[in-house]
Amino acid sequence: MTVTENGFVKYRWKVSTARNGYVTPTGSWSAKWLSRDHSSRKYDNAPMPYAVFFNGGYAVHATFDLKRLGRPASHGCVRLHPDNAAEFFSLARQAGLANTRVVITR
Questions:
Q1: By the 8 A CB rule, do 40 and 49 touch?
Q2: With 90 as the cut, is the pLDDT of residue 22 above it?
Q3: Which helix (H) or strand (E) holds 93?
C-alpha cells in the first residue's frame, strides 16, 4: 500500500487483500466513515481496529495475523500492520473523509 500526501509518497506498507474465494474491489473511493474499535458483523465479530471504510463493508484496517501480510488473506478488506493502520486512521481523521481517497488496483 502506498500512502501519498500532497502528491508525495509518505509511506509504503505491506498489506493483505482477498484470499481465494473472496474479492477486494478495485476502484477509487473517498473514505466513508472511521471506526477505532470495529468488529465485523459479517465474520463472527472479527476485530477490525483502526478501520477506514471506503465501499460498503470494505475497509482498510489493522490485522494481528502479521505473518500473512504481503499475501492474500482477507475476506476482501485491506489489512495492515496495527502500527500502520493506526497511522493511516490518524491521517484520514486529520485530512477528513472527503480528502481521503482509497484507490485499489490489481
A1: no
A2: yes
A3: helix 82-95
- Which residues lie closer than 8 Å to 38 by C-beta, 6 or more apart? 47, 48, 49, 51, 59, 61
Strand (E) or helix (H) holding 91: helix 82-95
Cβ-proximal residues to 105 (8 Å cutoff; 6+ apart), any chain: 26
The domains found in the chain, sorted by start residue, are 14-104 (2.40.440.10)
Catalytic residue check, 77: yes
Catalytic residue among 38, 61, 75, 81: 61
pLDDT in tens, 49-104: 999 999 999 999 999 999 999 999 999 999 999 999 999 999 999 999 999 999 99
Distance CA 53, CA 70 (A): 20
- Catalytic residue, from 38, 75, 77, 81: name it: 77
61 noted as active-site residue: yes
